Amino acid sequence: MSDKYEAIRLRNQLCFPLYLCAKEVTRKYTPLLEDLDLTYTQYVVMMFLWEQDGCTVHQIGDTLMLDPSTLTPLLKKLESKGYISRTRSETDERSLNIVLTEKGSALKDKALSVPEQMRCCIGLTPEEGAVLGGLIMKILRNIESTEKE
């Protein structure tokens, strides 16, 4: 006998394990980031800046999928901690340039242990992590492409 509600059972929803996993993984970062004086979202921004220093707020927001109402206070907080500097663009006064300070750059070395600690916590091999990451990025690309239609 068919159950017309099978499709909406919690156990059949991909969104639920994704939500739980994201919530729990983010929670596991909290004690690891305390030594860096960073929240998880600040850590993500700093990782972006460690790869691409000297960028605009717009570039950070686009790459990390963060809207200005989330990003602006986060960047102000990072600036108050002395990790970044925010300056108006000389060519476009509406644009803010974000640059790591010496203190922000030095934090990169302190952060080196975080990924390995998380790998141990999560319990996936590097190969499994790469596959999972690839699938999650595929989901995000698919969602993004359907929103543009």
Features of the shown structure:
8% strand, mainly alpha, Arc Repressor Mutant, subunit A, 149 residues, globular, 3 strands, 64% helix, three-stranded antiparallel sheet
Low-confidence stretches: none
Shape: globular
Which whole number gives the mean pLDDT?
Answer: 92
Which sequence of SSEs, written as H and E, runs from N to C?
HHEHHEEHHH
The number of strands is 3
Spatial order of the strands in the main sheet?
A: 1-3-2
Query: What is the architecture of the domain at 35-107 at the second tier of CATH?
Result: Orthogonal Bundle
Biggest β-sheet, characterized? 3 strands, antiparallel
Instruction: Please report which band the strand proportion falls in: under 5%, 5-15%, 15-25%, 25-35%, 35-45% or over 45%.
Output: 5-15%
C-alpha Rg, in Å?
Answer: 19 Å
What name does the CATH topology of the domain at 35-107 carry? Answer: Arc Repressor Mutant, subunit A
Helix content: 55-70%
Q: In terms of structural class, how would the helical and strand content be classed? A: mainly alpha
Question: How widely separated are the two ends?
Answer: 38 Å
Q: CATH superfamily membership of the domain at 35-107, which one? A: Winged helix-like DNA-binding domain superfamily/Winged helix DNA-binding domain
Tally of separate helices = 7
The CATH C-level name of the domain at 35-107 is Mainly Alpha
